[in-house]
Amino acid sequence: MSSDTGSTTPVPKIQQTTPPIVGRDAELSLLGTRIEQLKREQGGAVFLVGESGVGKTRLLKEAVLLAGRAGFTGLLVGCRGSEQGPLVPVAFLLRGLLSVATSLPPAVRARRVQQRLNDLSLNQHTAVVTDLINQVGSSKLPFNPDQTVDANIPAIATATVDIIRQLAAGEKPVVAAFDDIDQAGPDLQAVLVRLLANLPDLPVIVLGALARTGTFPLSGAGGVLELAPLNQQETAELIGGLLADNPDPEFGEMVWNLTDGSPLLVRMLIEDLSEDSRLQARPQGIHLVDGGTMQGLMQIVRRHLKQLDDADTAVLRALAVLGSGSPIAQIETLLPGGENGRLSALSAGGWVERLPDTDRFRYVNRITQDMVYSGMSPHERSVFHKRAGEYFYNTSLMGDRLFTTQAIAHYRLAGDSSGALEALDLAVREARSHNDEEAIIRLLQTGIAITSASPAASSKRTEFAERLGDIHARRGDYRKAASAYGESGVGQNALRLRGKLGLSLLVFDGVRSSHVLGKITRRVPLDFPGDLRWVLEAGHAWALSLAGSHYNAIRHVRDVLATLGSLSGYGAARTLMRAMLGMVLFYNGDLVDAQPHLDTARQSWEARADQQGVLLINRVLNEAPRSEVTDLLMQILLHPLLIDPMVE
């Protein structure tokens, strides 16, 4: 620091809870303009994009205030903490739109909703809106906590759009600001996407704040504002606004370098220095009283954690592991001694905050949560994740609401692959009971990822890979099927899986198909169930033909027929190989030689009432393209081997 000591005076501790807005004149101007346009019924959407702590939430709050000053309905809805209650933000939005106080008892809330919807001529939405609002106020998790879209979404989305439309018709435009919109789950995103699709017809502005790496679709946005960190001068202005005095140049530069211009980190650092009375004012500006260096934010958080007792620290770690928006009951399951009211004390201390009208808590900001989590030892994280996995798994076993997605995730983070696989099996059974094939696909992909890191689980990996490939093959997406089948595995089932890989490759890569089938076929016993050996021999012959090796294909089929001739039974295999010989000869231009083999195969299939076989021969004789014939052949070779995803 500067050697000029001059006269100094203590710097008062920061009193203001809302930091000044610095370096955002252009963004504020645009938001003000868009809100002003609502008077002319010109709605739209604006998204604020930037890193955590860059000031997105502060701008949203200011936009809501601007809306209120203009006489509009302005609502700020937080999406962070909605992972386990995905429609909680929508309920708060509807409560605000309908002016339903959160303190009202459920019966009174229901009457208020009915009255307000009646005034808006929207009685048809009374049941779904009342149910949503009252569920959020209860202790149970609303709707489905797993990663699937709730069946009520279309009705909820329609109700939300209709309510906003009717309010706007009464000259009450709406500014709905959604903070941390990238943390919205599928349910909430579905409602917001529906709302965005209707924006051209509504005098409403939707504002959304999300991280630069967020995945929320930005289509329909009337503007995307990229928020950059503060520069050095802007950082100095923010410090001056917080302390009512400017920093000296060297102190301002130190803060800027340490925080990378993040407004949130600047405020946290200045608050910490102020609380510790390490700042003094002198003619050159605010400076550090000891003339020394400052700690980084991680060190500050660690130091403050050390000032807490072990029980408080455990509560913070439990919430960091579970994630924002976790109910008290969940947090307590990770703590041997329970929570014992410590969340209220931690809330008073500025660590956490309660989500309005719920028993759920979240960190005041994501940065602190990340720092608490990363500051835990690997063993501590593993213990907490294991307890969380057990809680969600046991809850799924005992109740009617499944938490298997959370159980799987926590078991994996705990390094407990066996626990994760047990929870995954439960989730697959539940998905089957609802005929949810998309959920099964996601779960099988997760299963492959889990087992890939465990050599002892190779047989399970083979099972997952085969089932996933079978789903894609049943859908006719043979590229995805081949990718799934290509997952490694051992054991007898791996023969069938590798065979399916070779067959699925027939559609788009004959050369690779012939290579795979050539290697695997001779390893399959002649009496393998399902005539697998002969199915793969037929596929190998056709792969050779597709790859241009017509002579090798013809010789291969004749060798297989010779082998079959020395065996009793295998009539279906003989028919298949005669068909293959005829097909290879036909597409090699040997029409005369091909005819008797094709006729024999067709007669055999007709005798067995095998319409697919008959159709295949007819399409060959009608000179169908090889690609069409290959698609038909897949129905005969591969599809009978596929496992129904809805069957255990």
Descriptive labels:
648 residues; five-stranded parallel β-sheet; elongated; alpha/beta
- Which word captures the global form? elongated
User: Using DSSP, what is the number of strands?
Assistant: 11
Estimate the strand proportion.
Answer: 5-15%
Main β sheet profile: 5 strands, parallel
Strand order of the largest sheet: 3-4-5-2-6
- Taking all Cα atoms into account, the compactness measure Rg is 33 Å
- Percentage of helical residues? 55-70%
Structural class: alpha/beta
End-to-end gap: 71 Å
Low-pLDDT runs of 5+ residues are: 138-149
Average pLDDT works out at: 86
Count of runs of 4 or more consecutive helical residues: 29
Describe the structure.
The chain is α/β, with parallel strands linked by helices and about 650 residues long. It has 29 helices and 11 strands. It has helices at about 25-35, 55-70, 90-100, 105-120, 125-135, 155-170, 185-195, 230-245, 250-260, 265-275, 295-305, 310-320, 330-335, 340-350, 365-375, 380-400, 405-415, 415-435, 435-450, 460-475, 480-485, 490-505, 510-520, 530-545, 550-565, 570-585, 590-605, 610-620, 625-635, and strands at about 10, 45-50, 75-80, 175-180, 205-210, 225, 280, 285-290, 325, 350-355, 360-365. It has a 5-stranded parallel sheet, with helices on both faces. A 3-stranded antiparallel sheet has the order 1-7-8. Strand 7 and strand 8 (about 285-290) form a beta hairpin. Helix 1 packs parallel to helix 2. The longest helix has 21 residues, at about 380-400.
